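Need tokens for this chain, all 81 residues.
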Amino acid sequence: MNRHMVTLRLDPDKKKALDAIASGLDRDRSYILNQAIDAYLETHEWQLAHMKEGLRQAERKRFAKDSQIKAAFAKWPKKIR
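Here are the structure tokens for all 81 residues:
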């Protein structure tokens, strides 16, 4: 796999935290940063796909019914609502 060099500026506390994680896992900082970037990309790709699907449904006028929305909110803890 080809690798490319990327320069990144970090706050000293973040660098220290990354190094502590890397040391605890017996890995180098690059490994930890690659894992973090993979997780970030996966999360945002998932969110983007779901937003696009929501827009497709809205364009087709497919909206949730009031009863479905109420049922979904009822599942959330009261302090979040």
